[in-house]
Predict the structure of Acetyltransferase.
Amino acid sequence: MKISVLIRTLDEERNLPSLFENIEWCKDVVVVDSGSTDRSIEISEAAGARVYHKSWEGDEGAHFTWIFNNVQFENEWVLLLDGDERVTPELYLELCAIAGQEDDQGVVAYYCGRKNLLMGKWLKYSMPPTPVMRFFKKDRIRFERTINTTPVVDGKHGYLKNLLVHHNFSKGISEWVDRHNRYSTHEAIETLKDRNTNSVHWIKLFSFDRATRGHEVKKLSYRLPFRASCKFFYMYVIRGGLLDGRAGFIYCILQYLYEWLIVLKIASLKYKANDFYGVEIEPIVVNGKANGASIDRQNHSVDEFVWRHEMENRMRSPWTFKEKVLRVVWGSVESTLFRYSFHNMYRWRNFLLRLFGAKIGKNCSIRRTVNVYIPWHLEMGDWCTIGDDVILYPLGQITIKDRVMISQMAHLCAGTHDFTRMDMPLLRPPIEVGSDTWICSDVFVGPNVKIGDGCVIGARSSVFHDLPAWQICVGNPARAMKDREYDGKR
């Protein structure tokens, strides 16, 4: 057997026994440990592996460089394995055939697909066997990027026909989340680097080589708006993750959360890059005291201590952890299952809203382009109609009574900020819309507003105060203009 196996470990005690049993055919197993605190080293040494120690410094590419410079492999061909990967008998025979042939036609590295498992089910559609670099001649390859490395091959590369088995969640969901939280930090850094230094080569997107296409698609994804939602929709709908059942849905949601973490950390890095807290502000003098806590009304300035304190308060999230999780999950459902349903699937959309806590009455018609940001703060009576591109923004409670019609592009905003304070805390006053009301096209309804029964609000009006019942109201701000006659009656 002319193959060496390279395994990188960090607390892989749970996976190593079965891995060593799986590769007992290999006589040269190298383990590079990055500071395991469990029995990983003990298990590796007992299995006859050569163990090297290299601390993890946050750069996977540099980690591989150290390995290739300091580890002496006994064989020319190296098989790279993670602790949760297993070699099938078919793949073993294919590797032996490649390593044993004298004429390799210049191919010095091979990508290998993986059969990814979750809850004992193969994620055939939501996580198909994307090729990863796993088999190569040790002196003809290097790896770049700090995380999810990109191989640079000195020569031709090929693709293995058989798959590795990948137990991606062998340590549980919590470990996967912790690991991808770390990955997301590095991915955010790499994304910013790539945006600044690399452009997308559009021709390569249509390359016949899968790895080349994959690299360019990833570079393109760095530049997409709504990156997390796009990935969920691509994995769950376009790629067919819904065919993987419950396991597929869970995995697509986890990938959505991972991408969302990357987006948030990119925003955080940009914020730090602008050195927001590094702005020099001279302390003002209030009543002869250098560190007064008052605002200088004339110059609109504030002393540095108060400024920093108030800005820190502004950056704190007003949402609980449960609300954050619900908003992320609902955002995924709304941007896919809700938004891309057929236009007349009203019962389906009502079901989805109820599933996330909205109280929806009978026979309500809600168009698929409606934006409902927080459904658990929405209550709607019977026989209501919500038109295209309506925005329901219920930071506070929005109550819509029976037989209400809200026309296209109207915006009901049950939230504002206290602008009398520097930290501008979020306020959530409610909105109540009475029965038999018609809110016409492009109307804005602000927070803390009660609209009386039977009211008609003319197109493009703005509502900032309560409106009386059975009146026709127009303007900015909207005012009652005349009585509304209903079936010939007031």
Notes: Residues 273-306 have pLDDT under 50 and may be disordered. The CA atoms of residues 13 and 163 lie 24 Å apart. The chain has four domains: 3-169, 174-266, 275-315, 343-483.
